[in-house]
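ok so dumb question maybe but i'm new to this and my supervisor (M.) told me to 'just get the structure for ATP-dependent dethiobiotin synthetase BioD' and walked off. so i did the thing. is this what she meant?? sequence i used:
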Amino acid sequence: MHNGIFVTGTGTDIGKTYVTALLIKKLHEAGCGTAYFKAAVSGNERDENGSLIPGDAAYVKTISGISQPLDTMCPYIYETAVSPHLASKIEGDPVELEKVRACYERLCREYEYVICEGSGGIVCPIRFDSKTIMLEDIIKSLGLPTIIVADAGLGTINSVVLTCEYMKSHGLVIRGLILNNFHKGSIMEEDNKLMCEKLTGLPVIACVSENDTDIDISAEELKRICSRGGGI
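this is what came out, is it supposed to look like this??
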């Protein structure tokens, strides 16, 4: 039985990739075989040979120091910087859950931990044509608990509570919250942390400041969060 977590966020450009890289780095430096996986990534650039490079995966690989081959990280790569459902309408190659699951399960056989990153916020259409696939469908298909990344600043109480309520109502398991762009000692951000915990009943398991190269959670605690037994 594999171990892992699915990292989602309260919106796009909230810092999911940055936080995911730090989580993987933490496990990797603790000697755990750890892989990165993202089902669909859009807004990518081409290399000198014209091949699309999954930018988020390349970033995570660089920051975390893992040796996982880049071509095992993202089964669906799009150039257009829009939601995956629209990118696939423009470029073709729509997401198939069977392929996503097969790629993920292959990693599970090779690595002790697989940390998955979502596209955009939790309400993200991955495919919307003859089939409808939402981000939550991928999470359920992979059978993973989740962590929510949110910005620490103004407005985060609303976005965190709404995201949590949506996820809970759709049967998704949430292990905790991570606040990005956190300024320790800020009265507002310290209060945001407290209110997010009180209003959702979930722990803030880490706070990340700009340009942090480490995340303030122990490797053992992170392993526990990623375990099938779960919880803190």
